[in-house]
Amino acid sequence: MTDLTPFDVITAKLPQLSAWQAVWNEAEELLAEAHPEGYDVLDIGRIAFDCLPEDEKPAALDALFYCWWTALQSDREARARYEAIGGAL
């Protein structure tokens, strides 16, 4: 027997937003409204990071580090594939 309500069962399957993702989305929406002509990704990140509670900042920083590492690895793999087919950089 479970203590979960039908609502809990349904929502448990949905992806959960971290505090970092939530403030990032909010900052991006804010900037899109305030600057329809465009804005920089750094502005989104700075606003989002500044809005986080102090106890959430270490996890957000970890997410940024892992994101950077993943992008760097992806770039290295793409370069290796390109060079393997005879491309030159």
Strand content: under 5%
Radius of gyration: 19 Å
Q: Can you give the mean pLDDT?
A: 91
The tally of strands reads: 0
Q: Please count the helical segments.
A: 4
Descriptors:
89 residues, mainly alpha, 4 helices, extended
Give a short summary of the structure.
With 89 residues, the chain is an all-alpha fold.
Could you characterize what this model shows?
This protein is mainly alpha-helical and 89 residues long. 69% of the residues lie in helices and 0% in strands. The chain is built from four helices and no strands. α2 (19-34) packs across α3 (41-51).
List strands and helices in order, with pairings.
Layout: H1 6-11, H2 19-34, H3 41-51, H4 57-84
